[in-house]
Amino acid sequence: MSHAAQFINGQWLEGQGALFSSLDPAKNSVIWQANAADAKQVDLAVNSAREAYYVWADLSFAERLAVVKNFALQLEANKEQLAQTIGLETGKPLWETRTEVAAMIGKVAISEKAYLERTGTVENPMPQGKAFIRHKAHGVVAIFGPYNFPGHLPNGHIIPALLAGNAVVFKPSELTPLVAELTLKLWQQAGLPAGVINLVQGEVETGKALASHRGIDGLFFTGSSRTGHFIHQQFAGQPGKILALEMGGNNPLIVKDVADTKAAVHDIIQSAFISSGQRCTCARKLFLSADQQGDLILAQLIKATQAIKIGHFDDEDQPFMGSMISEAAALSMVAAQQQLVSLGGKILVELKHIAGTGFVTPGIIDCTDVKDFPDDEHFGPLLKVFRFTDFDAAIALGNDTSFGLSAGLLSDNQADYEHFLRRIRAGIVNWNRPITGASSAAPFGGIGASGNHRASAFYAADYCAYPVASVELEQVSLPTSLSPGLVL
Ligand SMILES: NC(=O)C1=CN([C@@H]2O[C@H](COP(=O)(O)OP(=O)(O)OC[C@H]3O[C@@H](n4cnc5c(N)ncnc54)[C@H](O)[C@@H]3O)[C@@H](O)[C@H]2O)C=CC1
Ligand SMILES: O=C(O)CCC(=O)N[C@@H](CCC(=O)O)C(=O)O
């Protein structure tokens, strides 16, 4: 079943590394298999990107934009096939994967706007000439993607990188190679010159070969905090290279004084269980007041959670939650639940695994009495509840994490929100909205262990190019007055 799955210098090549497979996580059946790119092929990909970079960067922005717009047309023409492929490989229901493809298409217009607004060209007149601020591409950039949005999130680095004039070597998640292969075929059909985008597929060894390659000028990463920290260490002592890290979160959601408890439950579920809890922005810690209203919301939340429909990505009657990415991911959630129970957590809704699949049911666990609460991102549908009596103490507990990605407050009291906004430490802070579903038209990134201050989405333009300041005169000419002590 192996096939040519590496796209290097405009050619599909057989990998020379180890054989690896992708599974339909709902059935544990193999849907894709190929050999990984070995270190030599990674080297070939970086070198072909280097050659292509000069050709690509020399084009005007309008010429590059035209090719990128062709890609959007390819996405549009193949959107159902891509949505089906994402669903098959990740387990996410089609209603979600169709939204993911729509976000990929929308990324083109947003990135065009961001490029012009944040990194375009500024010209200022001077007495004898002109001053310019321009932006130039870094060169060859490596892009690493996660499995949870295998189309949209790598696309969020690739499109702005290409628009700015960079050449790309893309290493997708080893759990979603089929989506990556289809996406690259669409780039090929869009008419991108050979070598401007290269695909190296494989597991950790392929990733390490790319991240440590001396020939890359930058690396844009979306993935786990563990891998991001590893890459950050690998980049130590190379200040000349640009590194953008978009990593995980351990995100708090506080509920306080709401009139519409049903609406609050809706926002909690959208925050905690969408994508089977596999979003970096998902609420992991829910703070509910230790009073009658908190009791009522918790009772409604438990009932609604138990009623969540789970099913296959392509079920006609669409589920809210599909399978997790793998059976291993599902089992890791069971283990996380067991660990919290051993630390004093009380199960309110048990997260259960369906053996032989990646399916789990959503779980809720009361962790109010847990001592030494682990600051781990549990990347799945397990919501930890904390009951509070003091708002500031709840905010302090929300901040008690090395991460700082997203946070939210559900409250009808504006003063509470203003206080929350001042105190909470996160890059995405919402009021009376779910904390998932961030807009591509805004910056997207976190602080602490969630990122390295290189926000993505609308601000991706910033890390895709560097500014060049120029003062330009058409002729060499003497200044109107000479510096003291100079005689010519
Ligand atoms: N802040 C953000 O924008 C987002 C963050 N995430 C985070 O991503 C994680 C889920 O994605 P995963 O695919 O599990 O992430 P991951 O860290 O396991 O993998 C990401 C990429 O890094 C590669 N990789 C893994 N180890 C490597 C190494 N030692 N050297 C070089 N490359 C290596 C993988 O092959 C993959 O391509 C979660 O933690 C989630 O919170 C997911 C989406 C958005
Ligand atoms: O990158 C963008 O264009 C906007 C950010 C975005 O799409 N965020 C999504 C998914 C990210 C994740 O949580 O894995 C979200 O906030 O739900």
Q: Would you mind describing this structure in some detail?
A:
38% of the residues lie in helices and 22% in strands. The chain has helices at residues 39-58, 61-77, 79-90, 94-119, 152-164, 177-190, 204-211, 225-234, 261-272, 292-306, 327-342, 391-399, 414-423, 460-464; strands at residues 4-8, 11-14, 19-24, 29-35, 122-125, 130-137, 140-144, 167-171, 197-199, 218-222, 242-246, 251-255, 283-289, 346-349, 363-366, 382-388, 406-410, 428-431, 443-444, 456-457, 465-472. The strands form six sheets. Strands 14-15-16-13-12-17-18 form a seven-stranded mixed sheet, sandwiched between helices. The protein has a five-stranded parallel sheet with strand order 9-8-7-10-11, with helices on both faces. Helix 3 runs antiparallel to helix 6 (177-190). The longest helix has 26 residues, at 94-119. The chain is globular and about 85 Å long. The mean pLDDT is 97. It binds 1,4-dihydronicotinamide adenine dinucleotide (NAI) and the ligand O=C(O)CCC(=O)N[C@@H](CCC(=O)O)C(=O)O. It catalyses: N-succinyl-L-glutamate 5-semialdehyde + NAD(+) + H2O = N-succinyl-L-glutamate + NADH + 2 H(+). InterPro entries: Ald_DH/histidinol_DH, Ald_DH_C, Ald_DH_CS_CYS, Ald_DH_CS_GLU, Ald_DH_N, Aldehyde_DH_dom, SuccinylGlu_semiald_DH_AstD. GO terms for molecular function: succinylglutamate-semialdehyde dehydrogenase activity. Keywords: Arginine metabolism, NAD, Oxidoreductase.
